Amino acid sequence: RLPDAEQEEAEVGWQEKLFSQFEVDLYQNESACQTPLDRQYHGEILKLEKAGGRKNYRIFTYTDHDRFTNLEEHCQKVTDSDHEVPSYLAERMANVRRRRQDHRPIEASSLKSKIVTWEPSEEFIKNNHVINTPVQTMYIMGDLGPYGKLGHREYEHVLCTIKVDGNGVITVKPDFTGTKGAYRIELDGEKREVWKYTIENASVQVQPEEEEREQRVFRDLYGRHKEYLSGLVGSEFEMTLPGTLRLFVNGEIVSAQGYEYDNLYVHFFLELPNQWSSPAFQQLSGVTQTCATKTLGWDNVAYFCYPFTLEMFFTQGDESEDSLPQWPVLYFEVLSLDFWQRYRVEGYGSLVLPASPGLHMLTIPTWRPVELGTVAELRRFFIGGSPELEDITYVRIPSTFKGERLSRFGFRTETTGSVTFRLYCLQQSKAFLETSALRQRMQSVLDRLGGFSQQSSVYNVLEAFQRARRRMQEARESLPQDLISTSASTV
Q1: Looking at the whole model, is its pTM more than 0.70?
Q2: Mapped to the 3 state alphabet, what secondary structure does 126-166 carry?
Q3: What is the C-alpha R_g of the chain?
Q4: Half-sphere exposure of residue 119, counting CA atoms within 13 Å on the CB side?
Q5: Whether 351 contacts 363, CB under 8 Å
Q6: Rounded to an integer, what distance in angstroms lies between the CA atom of residue 221 and that of residue 484?
Q7: What's the pLDDT tens digit per position in 55-94?
Q8: Contact (Cβ atoms closer than 8 angstroms) between residue 312 and residue 284
């Protein structure tokens, strides 16, 4: 085209090199060529000069092999603040030069000798400690200098960036114009020139036969991958028996805070009510490690991060039974152990396992029994020891209690700290897959169990109503018969 043309159109292929006026002036001089790539460009420019010169005028490209870095990509901001400082990770990632890496087979001897790299190089750190997906990059550039003054670097602008990573993902920025309007570039200067350009996909459309063949290859690949995953999982997926609920708990004793003494540890065990069972290999109790506390705010916190796993089964019994099925309870006690091997009970607590699946963060307050007078506290301070519960289930209603009323009158306690639990609960039952009455019965059991655990079941309300009704009947029976007859005649 003529130099004074106001429009230019160029069709560019992947990694196709179109020289700019600056590169033509630079590589024409053989003395300025230092690398093999420079000498290759020198030969190509000479061939272009013999063929009548380059066809492009303002549009040119930088391929993956050129020494060009788009500084705007390394100066991207997260906010619109002028005082934003890039983070350490952003600075490290900006210095990563992502290239294709040669995958060489690793011998067994070299693998054993390089399990730990004691003195890693900077290149080793870049390749292993940051996301280093191999990427090929190509820039379509525009020389927007004044007419007759082309070839100056300050007038070069990026029109389009095309990247292809090792996974085959093609990124075009900005996107193809399509039905949108043309992109605008406004130059700084006295004239404030505005340039408009469009980007279109000039690739040849895929033939239907080739597209069908590609889809067939993809289906075959995905089918093999599905078979591979099925082989890893296996076909014998363990299922529960009909009418049985399987509860699996991945728990963690996160921390204990607010206690008087240091070096804490937690002893816990799980109590299974009626109709609940556990596998023979399942341990229903445990003890954490002894953990020193650290001061956070007003509390001394001991971080245990102690994991435990619980697996249990609920077997649905006869629905005609009057007793309401109960949910498992986790009892625990917090103790302290000092340098002189003196241990003290710091608190007792209990936790009803959540009735709903998912993640649950629970902080349970605790208490400990105390005696009257200062002698017990002096003994606790100097020689250790303190009042303990003979049966830890006394924290709630003991399972061995068979009476109607449990009186704790005269039992003195003191509020202590709290323990934080993190519980991941999973439930498995065939009833979740059924649409028959079996699912409804199991779901009703779950609802009843959940209501019991939350002490908000309708059953409790009905039971209280029945007790009140019995008391009214007993009171009515104790009244004189003439009074009852008189009141009845009046009504």
Answers
A1: no
A2: HHHHCCCCCEEEEEEEEECCCCCCCCCHHHEEEEEEEEEEC
A3: 39
A4: 0
A5: no
A6: 87
A7: 888 899 999 888 776 666 656 666 777 777 777 666 666 5
A8: no
